Amino acid sequence: MAKYQNLLVAIDPDRDDQPALRRAVYLVRRNGGRIKAFLTIYDFSYEMTTLLSPEERAAMQQGVISQHTAWINQQCRFYLDEGVPIEIKVVWHNCPFEAIIQEVLSGSHDLLLKMAHQHDRFESVIFTPTDWHLLRKCPCPVWMVKDQPWPESGKALVAVNLSSEDPYHDPLNIKLVQETIELAENVDQADIHLVGACPVTSINNALELTDFSPSVYNDAIRGQHLIAMRALRQKFCIEEKFTHVEKGLPEEVISDLAEQLQAGVVVLGTLGRTGISAVLIGNTAEHAIDHLKCDLLVIKPDNFNYPFKADNDDKL
């Protein structure tokens, strides 16, 4: 049975077309399972209606929820008529990413799908988007869907970290490849490719070091990455022609190869780093969103500690 059976789709309230819902239906038609179309809504003006009683304000909120529920039902009508199992849920909540994560936890969802929006890099540092919060904090895999059709025999590109400095990366690499193989067996995937990016030392960084050759150093680092890649591919019996080790920044290497291969989805792991380091440096997954022209599936390690607890009470 396919791994992803209980899908949560974050509905975009500003679009009549829902790419994330289409991708979820694509998966369910091939893998089985069920979908929950989920929307969070909030209008601050309703909280300012102090002349109304709490009961009247609650009734107004419920009226808005009912309107949006009917709107989503219209979006899902074609799929529902075909027998695709879709549940519709709309909640009143002033923080979308918190509501989504709470729903993932309370509903035991194993995959979240959301349309990916382009973000200005400077704005992202000051105003952290919902996408970034979900990539860092959502406990289940997050599938960021680009607004484009799924390619014929679309390839799956798995971005692995081949550096041995962090002990968390080895088991995460294995998990990424395992889950991608299982996914590829249940959708129209032709091949699985592995890609690793190795850092490059510039000449400027070595000017004050005697007897230091940046090119020799870079080749040595790439050689270490090639050895690590070989060990990983052999574990899963993946042919060498489906593995790639390139010099450069991960987000650039990944996006360039994804475009070259016409990949349908890039699978990438993230440790969910938070705090100052995440704000100033950013995670590879977050940078990759704005570079990729295909879908992005982000998976957390098994020991990921999410900063939320399940809440079975809807926030109305």
Give the topology.
Elements (H helix, E strand, L loop, with lengths): L5 E5 L8 H13 L2 E8 L2 H4 L6 H28 L4 E7 L3 H11 L4 E5 L5 H6 L3 H8 L4 E4 L9 E5 L9 H16 L7 E7 L15 H22 L7 E5 L2 H12 L1 E7 L6 H6 L2 H8 L3 E5 L17
Helix pairs in contact: 4-6, 9-11
List keywords for this structure.
316 residues; alpha/beta; Rossmann fold; 2 domains; ten-stranded mixed β-sheet
Written description of the protein model:
The chain has 2 domains: 6-145, Rossmann fold; 155-299, 3-Layer(aba) Sandwich (Rossmann fold), CATH 3.40.50. It has 11 helices and 10 strands. It has helices at residues 19-31, 44-47, 54-81, 96-106, 121-126, 130-137, 169-184, 214-235, 250-261, 276-281, 284-291; strands at 6-10, 34-41, 86-92, 111-115, 142-145, 155-159, 192-198, 243-247, 263-269, 295-299. A 10-stranded mixed beta sheet has the order 3-2-1-4-5-10-9-6-7-8, with helices on both faces. The longest helix has 28 residues, at 54-81. Mean pLDDT is 82; it is low at 123-127 and 275-281.
